[in-house]
Amino acid sequence: MAAPLSVEVEFGGGAELLFDGVKKHQVTLPGQEEPWDIRNLLVWIKKNLLKERPELFIQGDSVRPGILVLINDADWELLGELDYQLQDQDSILFISTLHGG
Amino acid sequence: MCQVGEDYAEPASEEPPPRQPGREQKCVKCKEGLPVVVIRAGDAFCRDCFKAFYIHKFRAVLGKNRLIFPGEKVLLAWSGGPSSSSMVWQVLEGLSRESAKRLRFVPGIVCIDEGAACGLSPEARAKALAEMKLILQTVGFPWHVVALEEVFDLPPSVLRCFAQEPVGTEGAYKAAVDSFLQQQHVLGAEGAGDSPSLAQGEEQLSWPCTQDPQNPQSPDRPPTAAQTEALSRLFDSVKTLTAKEELLQALRTHLILHVARTHGYSKVMTGDSCTRLAIKLMTSLALGRGAFLAWDTGFSDERHGDVVVVRPMREHTLKEVAFYNHLFAVPSVFTPALDTKAPEKASIHRLMEAFMLRLQDQFPSTVSTVYRTSEKLVKAPRDGCAAGPPGPRCLLCMCALDIDTAGAALLSQGGPPSPRHRAAVLRLPCEHEGLALPGPPAALHLGRGPAPQPELLPQGLHRAADPGVPG
């Protein structure tokens, strides 16, 4: 049984367009049976935060290729990607690299 | 070791799969820092080593190619996006270092407002422009903001390839650097407060005053509604997103070059990253531009003759750029582009991007492999301006046309194009205003998708009755 968590979810690089233009979201994840990991967080985001065009953000059970995920300013590849267990007060940042520079 | 039946969903297990670098690893470079980012396949860097690696790559690309001479005026093409913002920031930092390692050219920034082509409302455009100006003022280089509508006012001279200045030899570059250093030394010895590195990190006094960055000859006036309308109609008349993107690219390039020529810049730096160039290489192949890959994706692009386009960010992947910008607070402005929120199959560019990125996800050396291939491309000897009499050039991309010489005589007499020719020829009578060019008649590549309607092209380019291109 996982306790409720408070995390900050942030979007950048154009990804915020899919979330009504809002970059920072302070969210409280409700307590649930399974522990909160990135995989479950994505499902939660798709259901509760994503306003349009889910296929531009999520692909399968992961993010679309081209979207970087930073957990507390570190590459998620170093932390287990989808299997990383969320802690209270974590900061998850999604940066889209799908636009030119 | 990884076991076949291991259940990764166990809450107690904190160990990441062994094949991926874990947080308990150390930075591969300094062996002691906590890693924050994974570059390439499995190299974990800590924050400081990553910064050093990133900056070193930028300087190395510039230093390796030795094309930018000291004191040269270089125009930085800034779109507000992450790659070009990173490039501008690297130039800013590079110019303010201690004298031995300092970058030695004189920068300016150009920013093209493409809002009309992307269908942005005037308020959205104004808002984006305000954000951009804020950053431009912080950076402090002379800047030029140009609306894409001004492409309608371009003189026909933009379509001419100017005589190429002879590229300096290795000795010439070294001599130039040495004499520049000597000058600086002499100036420093004479005092007069001309020290290269001022305490506040201000720019050198040898730059033009940046109090009024806008060119006094073309005051900052917003484009007229009629021009915006004309541009919108032009882009609306192009039916496919692929063709729109190519048209936008061509118009943007012409405009940037015009700004460079007008203000005396001999080089233009664009922020194309490794990822973008790999995608561009594949897209160009799909679009039939295989002959020009070396110019489209190489470090330097001299097709325009007097102004050379260089790509110093070509060894940085988009992931590195995004991480650097986030970790070190590089400001950038996001503006919606033509293909924002477009579905995957909307254009060849989008499709290729999705293909490459998806492949990259599973095979992390995809982008770098494509990039290495692009490095091996060699420019064909018949380069246009450099060797022999200049051949006809495409109006939109300024590359030399690949028509065979046997039929060239026929074309210059205004004869009909035969099915052998791979380019469409549009006959322009010399009394036609605007795009009248001396010499052989102007010719246009027929790319995929229908061309824009004749009355809507800039300065009224008329189509010949029979394009005569097979397929």
From TrEMBL, chain A:
It comes from Physeter macrocephalus. Pathway: tRNA modification; 5-methoxycarbonylmethyl-2-thiouridine-tRNA biosynthesis. It is found in: Cytoplasm. Its main location: cytoplasm. The gene is URM1. HAMAP family: Urm1. The keyword Cytoplasm applies. It holds the Pfam family Urm1. One of its GO terms (biological process) is tRNA thio-modification. Belongs to the URM1 family. InterPro entries: Beta-grasp_dom_sf, Mopterin_synth/thiamin_S_b, Urm1. The modification 1-thioglycine is found at residue 101. Keywords: Cytoplasm, Isopeptide bond, tRNA processing, Ubl conjugation pathway. One of its GO terms (cellular component) is cytosol. C-terminal thiocarboxylation occurs in 2 steps, it is first acyl-adenylated (-COAMP) via the hesA/moeB/thiF part of MOCS3, then thiocarboxylated (-COSH) via the rhodanese domain of MOCS3. Component of a complex at least composed of URM1, CTU2/NCS2 and CTU1/ATPBD3. This is Ubiquitin-related modifier 1. There is a cross-link at residue 101 (Glycyl lysine isopeptide (Gly-Lys) (interchain with K-? in acceptor proteins)). Acts as a sulfur carrier required for 2-thiolation of mcm(5)S(2)U at tRNA wobble positions of cytosolic tRNA(Lys), tRNA(Glu) and tRNA(Gln). Serves as sulfur donor in tRNA 2-thiolation reaction by being thiocarboxylated (-COSH) at its C-terminus by MOCS3. The sulfur is then transferred to tRNA to form 2-thiolation of mcm(5)S(2)U. Also acts as a ubiquitin-like protein (UBL) that is covalently conjugated via an isopeptide bond to lysine residues of target proteins such as MOCS3, ATPBD3, CTU2, USP15 and CAS. The keyword tRNA processing applies.
UniProtKB/TrEMBL annotation, chain B:
Pathway: tRNA modification; 5-methoxycarbonylmethyl-2-thiouridine-tRNA biosynthesis. It comes from the Eukaryota. Component of a complex at least composed of URM1, CTU2/NCS2 and CTU1/ATPBD3. It is found in: Cytoplasm. Belongs to the CTU2/NCS2 family. The gene is CTU2. HAMAP family: CTU2. Its main location: cytoplasm. Residues 1-24, 441-471 are annotated as: Disordered. This is Cytoplasmic tRNA 2-thiolation protein 2.
